[in-house]
Amino acid sequence: MKYEITREPLDPQSLLDAVRSDECGAIVTFLGVVRVMGDGDRPVDGLAYEAYPEMALPEMRAIGAEASSRFGEARVAIAHRIGDLALGEVSVAIAVASKHRAVAFDACEYVIDELKQRVPIWKRENYRDGETRWRPNASPHA
């Protein structure tokens, strides 16, 4: 499968292509997009992400393998962007393919929740008033 950390804009189609298989009847995708309100309900004009790829990529692979074994045979691809991102840009993309849709949905949700909890990726919110703040990347709903 495909696991990457990149400074380049994410291409969801490349993730779909990585997981697509004639044995799979379902593909679920998740795109995390930079929104106008930060985690603390302050308006932002963008985010910046940093990562430690030497640790992040093996952990992303481990999460993909866990999702596949936990929910049934699933093909997983994950990409996360680093660097400065503007409003509307995709920061994280996940694609999961499986024989059946329930597995694909469950595995995709597991992947994003685990990614936010375990992968060493850090997020800085750039507020419209010029201030910045590093925020935890952990999902408040996980």
Report on this model:
- This protein is an alpha+beta fold.
- It is 32% helix and 37% strand.
- The protein contains 3 helices and 8 strands, in the order E-H-E-E-H-E-E-E-H-E-E.
- It has helices spanning 12-19, 53-71, 101-118, and strands spanning 3-6, 26-33, 44-51, 74-81, 83-86, 90-98, 121-127, 132-135.
- Strands 1-4-6-2 form a 4-stranded mixed β-sheet, with helices on both faces.
- A hairpin with a 4-residue loop joins strand 7 and strand 8 (132-135).
- Helix 2 (53-71) runs antiparallel to helix 3 (101-118).
- It is elongated and about 50 Å long.
- The two termini are 25 Å apart.
- The model has no long low-confidence stretch (mean pLDDT 94).
In short:
This protein is α+β, with helices and mostly antiparallel strands and about 140 residues long.
